[in-house]
Amino acid sequence: MTPVLEVDGLSIAAGGRRVVDGLSFRIAPGEALALVGESGSGKSATARAVIGLLPPGLAPDGGTIRFEGAPLKAGSAALRKLRGPGIGMVFQEPMTSLNPAHRIGAQMEEGLALHTRLNRAERREACIAMLERVGITDAPRRLEAYPHEFSGGMRQRIMLASVMLLRPRLLIADEPTTALDSLTQAEVMDLMAGLAREQGTALLLITHDLGLVARYADRALVMQHGRAVEEGPAAPLLDNPREAYTRALVDALPRRGPARKVPPAPPLIEARGLSVTYPKRGALFRRAEMFQAVEGVSLAIHPGEVVALVGGSGSGKTTLGRAMLRLVPVSGGQLLFRGTDVTARSGPALLDFRLACQIVFQDPYSSLDPRMRVRDIVAEPLRLPGGMALQERHRRAEALLEEVGLGGLGTRFPHALSGGQRQRVAIARALVRDPAFVVADEAVSALDATVRKQVLALLREQQQRRGFACLFVTHDLGVVEEIADRIVVMQHGRIVEEGPRDAVLDAPRHDYTRALLAAALRRPGAAA
Amino acid sequence: MRLRPNLLIGGTLLGFVFIVAATALVWTPYDPVRTNLRRRLVPPSSDYWLGTDEFGRDVASRLMEGAVTSLTVAASTVCVALVLGMAIGLAGGFLRGWTDRILGAVNDTLLAFPGILLALGLLAVLGPSRWGIVLALGLAYAPSVARVVRGTVLSIREREFVEASRALGNSEFYTLLRHVLPHTAAPVIVLATSLFGWIILSESALSFLGLGVPPPAATWGNMLASARPFMQDAPLLSIAPGVMIATCLLGVNLLGDALRDLLDPRDGA
Q1: Which uninterrupted H or E stretch holds A478?
Q2: pLDDT at residue B268 greater than cutoff 50
Q3: Which residues on A lie below 8 Å from B167 (Cβ)?
Q4: Which residues of A fall within a CB distance of 8 Å from B164?
Q5: Fewer CB within 10 Å: N-end or C-end of chain B?
Q6: Does the beta-carbon distance from B167 to A351 stay under 8 Å?
């Protein structure tokens, strides 16, 4: 049987450097192959070379790509005809891969109009059927909607629907769910795998996440520095990796640490019936409707304890985390810090509380001021307690940078660091004042699996050394396994389940917890 | 750091204009305001490098004198517009709420007038004088600065590093100065350089209407205006100030671009 895709000795050059070097693989009809690797391993470049859409600066540098036996040439009319009905592609960023200026119906129809002889009514019907297939309710009306009216997960389904409408023989999915929370990720991936099976579409899945590979790929090809490291059927390869690099990737999957005993003590920070409401968008001179993000939540965190706050997008977990730091206005309830009420404090009275609490944000690209040097960013918190000379502040910042593994990088600007390095800077900034309480808001969600592992290890090590209490906000139960003492699950602004880590993970009582657990990508073979 | 052609060319052009102006402060070939009706509209010669105008005044001297006036007026006006506009824009964008609505409404009302019309009205009240022009044009152009600053502030204040600064316990004012203000530099510099150009032109338009820097003082604008009837017979009368205006604007724009690049750490490091 002719393979759908046959890549032979593919090389891609960026300037003088080869980002892909002599890569060969093939995909049989209907087969799912995962290209696995970290950022910069050349996996995305490979995918783009197949469809002839290499970004400027990258150029093919030898090798052949055959689609159903016929060689593909970048820029040829034949390749253009194949894009769509032959090869479909789903991109990573659902927020930007749909054109915000057009209704989704028009965007879905585009491909059909170009590649099929269907008339207008037939195209519309096909779109409606496909939207319904991907689980978008009220499809005929939704065709008239614009992309911004949908959530990230729904946009990714729409993207998938518009690609699968043309029944491509090969679907390339480039990190299709990296930007989504774990429940949505599982839904979209299940849908993608299901559609591919129905239509007999072969799948080339580009991912950094071995959890996805275990669940959705038949075969896996592990890449590092543009070369194939190991290739084989997915399950055995993950259970029993031959190469050291593959083993490192497998090891980067979350693993449960030993349960710790937190010595009993009065709570460090406690929310009592805390509520947060946001005004929905209102018009001028009209009272805006209120949206209840957090509804009367009570949560106590003890000194030195790591509490994981878990929930899907929109569960209110991030808002609760920020409310506990008084970063968003609280609309009801009380917040107690070391037994005293800080709910209504402001100005200088709040400073004590601010000095003792810190936050690490999700996105290290936007949480660091791009106009400041790393050393100044880390030293900035030391300005406030007062009485510390600039040199002393810099010295402390440098020492902490050394401690988080960034020695000698203090004079760089954030843009000259990788995502993992930036997150280390953000952690250093949070810790430099030796806080008693740290909120880590999805602090590792934007990172590659191996980098995530390292950053988690750093966070845990620092936590053990300094003994701060930590509220770890995340959508991914897998990450929680590594670090949490206690797990709190939130849905629709309320806490639905709460308990010691092992109890929640091994014997979840609430349906929502069970769903989160099923969606979490965990070590293959680990008890679910 | 690699050599930037726009820095080099812009610096040279603007440097030339500044040297001309600086020289004029201590020396000009003739008194720029002394008339000599027997020597009207003389073509260029070794005595009169650029000839004389309709009142027999030396064009080269007036051009040099004009450089001083035009540069001071334009630079002061840009400063007035920037200070006013940035204050309004920062306050509106950062405080939002009613402050922003009121400032925004006033700002948009001013923006609805053409700048020159607004300046005309103000000058009618203030009377034509050098500092009247600075104030009038500064007020006229401040709303566009405010607009740009407000937009940038609105987008920057949503970034997490601003929230991070709050979480550190920094005051709102400190956060505004340290983390928000520097990010408005790039768009403001670009705007300031083009404002510089508009202001030189606006000043010449006002001079043309008799509301500019009062004669006999020379500015490039009023030289250009008064040269209009003689465009056929003495083209150099209008070409000379025109070339100076163009040189100055090109220099300011190129230098502004270079400055913006230099100030951005993403390029500089």
Answers
A1: helix A477-483
A2: no
A3: 325, 327, 354, 357-359
A4: 359, 361, 367-368, 426, 429
A5: N
A6: no
Dihedral sign for Cα atoms in the order A399, A405, A407, A409? negative
Rounded to whole angstroms, what are the CA distances from A86 to A53, A71, A174?
15, 13, 17
Q: Could you tell me if A131 and A143 are in contact, meaning their C-beta atoms sit under 8 angstroms apart?
A: yes
All residues at 6 or more sequence positions from A66 whose CB lies less than 8 Å from its CB, including other chains: A3, A5, A6, A7, A8, A72
Structure tokens at A311: 């929930």
Shortest distance between the Cα of B142 and any Cα of chain A, in A, equals: 26
A65: left (phi over 0), alpha (psi -120 to 50) or beta: beta
Average pLDDT for A240-245: 88
* A356 contact B CB<8A: no
- Any residues with CB less than 8 A from the CB of B85 and at least 6 apart, and which? B141, B142, B143, B144, B145, B146, B147, B148, B149
Distance CA A232, CA A422 (A): 35
3-state SS track over B62-121: HHHHHHHHHHHHHHHHHHHHHHHHHHHHHHHHHHCHHHHHHHHHHHHHHHHCCHHHHHHH
pLDDT tens by residue, A356-393: 999 999 888 888 998 899 999 999 999 887 778 889 99
Chain B: give the shortest CA distance to residue A282, in Å.
Answer: 13
Residue B167: pLDDT band with limits 50, 70, 90:
confident
Q: pLDDT by residue (tens digit) across A401-432?
A: 999 999 888 898 988 888 889 999 999 999 99
> What is the per-residue pLDDT across A310-340, written as a single tens digit (0 to 9) for each?
988 878 898 999 999 999 889 889 999 998 8
pLDDT of residue A523: 52
Q: Measured between beta carbons, which residues in chain B are less than 8 angstroms from residue A351?
A: 169
- Taking CA–CA distances from B159, the nearest residue in chain A reads A366
Residue of A nearest to B264 (CA): A371
Chain B positions with Cβ closer than 8 Å to A: 101, 159-161, 163-170, 179, 182-183, 265-266, 269
Contact residues on chain B for A440, CB-CB shorter than 8 A: none
Enter the ipTM: 0.72
- Tokens 């789903």 locate to A90
Confidence check: pLDDT of A32 > 90? yes
Closest CA to A221 of A74, A20, A455: A20
Residue A170 has pLDDT above 90, yes or no: yes
Under an 8 A CB cutoff, do B168 and A367 touch?
no
Q: Output the DSSP codes for A295-352.
A: EEEEEEE-TT-EEEEE--TTSSHHHHHHHTTT-S---EEEEEETTEE-TT--THHHHH
